[in-house]
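Proteins fold reproducibly. Next comes an illustrative record:
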Amino acid sequence: MSDTVRPPSKQRLRLWLRMLSAHRGIEAHLRERLRETHDSTLPRFDVLSALDRHRDGLRMSDLSARLKVSNGNVTGIVERLASEGLIERSQVDGDRRAMLVRLTPAGIERFAAMAADHETWVNDLLAPFSAGELDTLITLLDRIGDHPA
């Protein structure tokens, strides 16, 4: 059946599967490169990235919410990054139960190297697209959020 004859619901399902496949392929490549080049994982990169955007630090609960993962998932990663001297933890004033985490100078330096490589890898993976095609894809994908289910 040609694409023009398929019902829109089948085309939308086909698009979703293509997007999922592309996402998985890119993610797998990035995971492998982070492991090989920086002896790190994508979740660790994500935690460092969030903290790099919030240099004053984030509460653990805010970090979990931004990453859309459970507090338990973040706790283990934060403990390992702290033991490596890449982040520091401190109590939140006025809330004994809350913990604030932020990058250390070593963490800032380490993340900068990882982020530079990450940008290069993504650039290489998406190099077949022209600037105009990238703008079109971004515009089209942005429209997905305009119509929540």
Notes: The beta strands are 58-59, 87-92, 95-103. The first strand starts at residue 58 and ends at 59. The mean pLDDT is 92. The helical segments are 8-38, 42-53, 60-67, 71-83, 105-125, 131-144.
